[in-house]
Amino acid sequence: QNATSPIMEELIAFHDHTLMIIFLISSLVLYIISMMLTTKLTHTSTMNAQEIEMIWTILPAIILIMIALPSLRILYMTDEFNKPYLTLKAIGHQWYWSYEYSDYVDLAFDSYIMPTYFLEPGEFRLLEVDNRTTLPMEADIRMLISSQDVLHSWAVPSLGVKADAIPGRLNQAMLASMRPGLF
């Protein structure tokens, strides 16, 4: 699915940025290797030059900084918690999830995976559930994620959210959807 949240759009842009750097480095290395294999000429003054050693020491450091700074910015964005509009608690069980809207009294439900024989054409196996979680769009939502029995992973890839549900531990994630849809 396409990105639905600003965080996921930033993650996609960072992926493209990093992939372009890797592509340029790989192309340069492939070019140098092919030139070394096809050319018999050697330049003796560059074989022991300190200038080239400085370049291949400083250039990778600059490239790592070009990757690290956007990465740290996105990491900060994913952990930034403003005043949430809504808090939703997801509790993982072995075969289903329980959801509780913490801001409202007694608003909780269980969400089970639909069996394959109940699926209608166009529905995805192992993704359809009997009770879907409904969340408002263009609002900051705090997710509290835990588990009751075993390790689980709560994820919505188009929102750029993935958190582990661990028994006895309460993990927190922030999400915001900028368009309506089924995710």
Automatic annotation (TrEMBL):
<feature type="transmembrane region" description="Helical">
    <location>
        <begin position="54"/>
        <end position="76"/>
    </location>
</feature>
<dbReference type="GO" id="GO:0004129">
    <property type="term" value="F:cytochrome-c oxidase activity"/>
</dbReference>
<dbReference type="InterPro" id="IPR008972">
    <property type="entry name" value="Cupredoxin"/>
</dbReference>
<keyword id="KW-0479">Metal-binding</keyword>
<keyword id="KW-1278">Translocase</keyword>
<feature type="domain" description="Cytochrome oxidase subunit II copper A binding">
    <location>
        <begin position="83"/>
        <end position="183"/>
    </location>
</feature>
<keyword id="KW-0679">Respiratory chain</keyword>
<dbReference type="InterPro" id="IPR011759">
    <property type="entry name" value="Cyt_c_oxidase_su2_TM_dom"/>
</dbReference>
<keyword id="KW-0813">Transport</keyword>
<keyword id="KW-0812">Transmembrane</keyword>
<feature type="domain" description="Cytochrome oxidase subunit II transmembrane region profile">
    <location>
        <begin position="1"/>
        <end position="82"/>
    </location>
</feature>
<dbReference type="Pfam" id="PF02790">
    <property type="entry name" value="COX2_TM"/>
</dbReference>
<keyword id="KW-1133">Transmembrane helix</keyword>
<feature type="transmembrane region" description="Helical">
    <location>
        <begin position="12"/>
        <end position="34"/>
    </location>
</feature>
<dbReference type="InterPro" id="IPR045187">
    <property type="entry name" value="CcO_II"/>
</dbReference>
<keyword id="KW-0496">Mitochondrion</keyword>
<keyword id="KW-0999">Mitochondrion inner membrane</keyword>
<comment type="function">
    <text>Component of the cytochrome c oxidase, the last enzyme in the mitochondrial electron transport chain which drives oxidative phosphorylation. The respiratory chain contains 3 multisubunit complexes succinate dehydrogenase (complex II, CII), ubiquinol-cytochrome c oxidoreductase (cytochrome b-c1 complex, complex III, CIII) and cytochrome c oxidase (complex IV, CIV), that cooperate to transfer electrons derived from NADH and succinate to molecular oxygen, creating an electrochemical gradient over the inner membrane that drives transmembrane transport and the ATP synthase.</text>
</comment>
<keyword id="KW-0249">Electron transport</keyword>
<comment type="similarity">
    <text>Belongs to the cytochrome c oxidase subunit 2 family.</text>
</comment>
<dbReference type="InterPro" id="IPR036257">
    <property type="entry name" value="Cyt_c_oxidase_su2_TM_sf"/>
</dbReference>
<keyword id="KW-0186">Copper</keyword>
<dbReference type="GO" id="GO:0005507">
    <property type="term" value="F:copper ion binding"/>
</dbReference>
<dbReference type="GO" id="GO:0042773">
    <property type="term" value="P:ATP synthesis coupled electron transport"/>
</dbReference>
<dbReference type="GO" id="GO:0005743">
    <property type="term" value="C:mitochondrial inner membrane"/>
</dbReference>
<keyword id="KW-0460">Magnesium</keyword>
<dbReference type="Pfam" id="PF00116">
    <property type="entry name" value="COX2"/>
</dbReference>
<dbReference type="InterPro" id="IPR002429">
    <property type="entry name" value="CcO_II-like_C"/>
</dbReference>
<protein>
    <recommendedName>
        <fullName>Cytochrome c oxidase subunit 2</fullName>
    </recommendedName>
</protein>
<keyword id="KW-0472">Membrane</keyword>
